[in-house]
Structure formats: C-alpha cells, structure tokens
Write a structure and sequence with these properties.
The protein has helices at about 35-45, 175-180; strands at about 1-5, 15-25, 50, 55-70, 80-90, 95-105, 110-115, 120-125, 130-135, 140-145, 150, 155-165, 195-200, 205-210. It starts with a strand and ends in a 6-residue tail after the last strand. The longest helix has 13 residues, at about 35-45. With about 210 residues, it is mainly beta.
C-alpha cells in the first residue's frame, strides 16, 4: 500500500488522496458480479472508516482510477487485481476551527466528538485560562475574569482549534494500553485510537458555543 495526500485548492478538513493496492482480492462468490462493482465493494470494505497511518481517516471512496490484472492462482479461485483509486480523507489542518460536542471530561482534559470522528482531545493546558477541574461535578470550569464560573457541560456544542494530528504507535499489549494517555492514543473507553486530533479552546470565540451567544 502506498499513498500521498493531494493538497486541496482551499484548506479544509477533507482531502482527496490517491492510493494504490497491489493485491485486491475478489472471492469466487463475487466473481459473477460486474468487475467494477465487485472491486468497489472490496475497496470500501477494506478502507472506509479506517485510519491510514500518516494520512488520515478514509471517509468515502471518491474514484476508481485504474484496474489491472485479475490473476487467479491455482487451487484458490479468487481473482487478484492491482487497483489505483482515490478516497476522501479526514485530516484537518493545524489552526483549522471545527465544531463538535463535548462528550467526556477528566482531570487530564476534554474529549470531543465530531459525529463521524470520536478521537479529539483537548489537554488541560490548552483550555481557556484559568480553568480548574471540579472533582464533585467531574467537569472543567473556566473562571471568567477570575470570578464567574463557566462550566463546560457535557453534550454541549463546542468550537475548537486544531493544534496537531497524531498517529500513535499501536500498543503491544492491553497492559501497555492501560498506562497510555490520550495523546498516546488511549480512549476513555479503554480502546486504542490510531489517529488523535489535539485541539485547544484558549482564544476568544472558542469553547462552548453558549459562552459567545448574545
């Protein structure tokens, strides 16, 4: 597998990437379908909603560019194709402003969902300053002008600014995952995230949308 992102004409969180798979395998039960249909279905099952390291999250198949081969190996029955194709990839740029919902908070920071992508993390040092963690409420609180408490309530719409996009190394065991932090790919559910968007809310207009509504 090889691929490289193509820069869009304008900055956006979605890009079109050209990929190449040297061995797309079509099983015997699917060989009766039109070739393009069978290969499209296989590419979608292999790549859609998957993260490609150092590239991003594949959101949808954009185009099949070329198909070559169709070799059937003795005793196997499957056909093997060399396919070049394009996919739409989610990979926001540094400084891009996105909107999502606040899904979880702990003493290390905030976790945000974009709906189609769950692994957005705001470390505590990138929150509005000064902010403190309320242990009783299990929520972060922005001390606006040093005295007014602005609670960061869960499930509220939130506006964030991208600081970096990380592709953490896969842990070798559950024990290794258990001691990893959010920046290393550990999720609040105890699973591994192969792609993490790190963001901040420390600027005017960022944070809960309700803060800035008149």
């Amino acid at each position: 597998l090889c691929g490289a992102p193509r820069q869009p004409p304008a900055r956006a969180m979605f890009q079109v990437a050209r990929l190449e798979d040297l061995n797309v395998k079509i099983l015997p039960e699917n060989l009766g379908k039109p070739r393009l249909e069978a290969i499209t279905q296989e590419i979608e099952s292999l790549y859609m909603d998957k993260v490609i390291k150092d590239l991003g999250l594949c959101v949808t198949l954009y185009e099949i560019v070329s198909i070559e081969g169709g070799t059937v190996y003795p005793g196997e029955g499957s056909a093997h194709f060399h396919v070049v194709f394009k996919v739409v990839v989610f990979r926001p740029f540094v400084g891009e402003v996105l909107e999502g919902r606040l899904k979880k908070a702990n003493s290390t920071g905030l976790y945000v969902t974009l709906g189609f992508f769950e692994d957005v993390f705001i470390p505590e040092h990138l929150l509005q300053e000064p902010s403190t963690f309320d242990d009783a409420e299990q929520l972060w609180v922005w001390m606006y002008q040093g005295e007014q408490k602005m609670f960061m309530d869960l499930d509220e719409p939130i506006r964030i600014r991208v600081q970096s996009v990380r592709f953490p190394e896969q842990p070798r065991s559950t024990d290794e995952l258990a001691v990893m932090g959010a920046l290393q790919g550990a999720t609040p559910e105890g699973t591994f995230a192969p792609m993490v968007v790190v963001a901040d809310i420390n600027a005017d207009g960022l944070g809960l949308l309700s803060w800035w509504q008149q």
